Each structure stands twice: as structure tokens, then as C-alpha cells.
Amino acid sequence: DLDLALTLGYVAVVFDGLDEILNAQVRMDFVQRVERFAGRYPLASILVTSRERGYEQAPLGRALFATIRLSEYTWPQVNEYATRWFKALGQPELYQPFMREVSGTQDIAINPLLLSLLCSLYKVDGHIPSNRYEVYNRCADLLFWRWDQHRQVRHREAVPNYGIQLME
User: Fold this and answer.
1) CB 164 within 8 A of CB 144
2) For the whole model, what pTM was predicted?
3) Average pLDDT in the chain
């Protein structure tokens, strides 16, 4: 069951958009709930995302969570990252077609995590979907299925697949 998977650290949990809780008191209550959750499942990997604005009004406890600031890339940095990524992959010829396709999703590509996912997605599928929903859907598929298969992580039948529902 899910409780066992969390207890054993088989599950990564993402709480995305802490900053989207506009009411400061509700956000503080939510932070306390996340901290209790982290205390109950110390082996589970937990990621909480938030924009910087407003984060200090209800920050996560530093004893349980490290705060990491990811700056957006500039477009030249996106180019450099993609060049190095495909070169390291041994497929530098994919760089140019990737950059042509990713230029339509510049607002997504400047995010370091999403750029990494877009590169992986392009390597696997040979294209980047044209709409944002499908980009996120394909990235979720990549995160929840393909990477685990590549790393030879086996999912037990007893552990339900909540990945796609969570991403939706």
C-alpha cells in the first residue's frame, strides 16, 4: 500500500506551488502539515516548490528541508545547456532540431528542471509536443515510468500508480 511505500522510501512526493496558497494563515497551516508528513515518512523524498515571493511568510523548517533557489536560464544558457546535453549523450546532431522545436516553448525551456526534461523528452520521442498540457503530460510519463525503467527500478504491484493522477 501507499503507506508502506512511503515508509520504505519508495515514493517521491512533490508539493508544487506552495506560493499559490494566497492566504498566509492557510499557507502556514499547509507548511505544518507538510512538515508533519515529512516527519512521519523520513525516508520519502519530498520536494516542495514555491516562487520566492511570499515564501518567507511561511517557510519550511530548515531542519527538515534545504532551500534551493533555481534561477531561470537566459536563452544563451538554454543553448549552452542543450549543446552540452546532446554532446554528452553522443548525439550532437539532435541539438539543432531540438532548438528549433524548443523555441516555441521558451517560457518553459528557461526553467532548469523543465529544460532537462525537454531534452530527455526530445531524445526519447524525437519531438516536443505543441501544446503545454501535452508537454507536461509527456514529462510526467517520463518521470514516472521511463526513468524508473531505465534505472531498472521495479514497481511492486502492491504499490498503486498515483503518478499520472497526481500530475493531473
Assistant:
1) yes
2) 0.56
3) 84
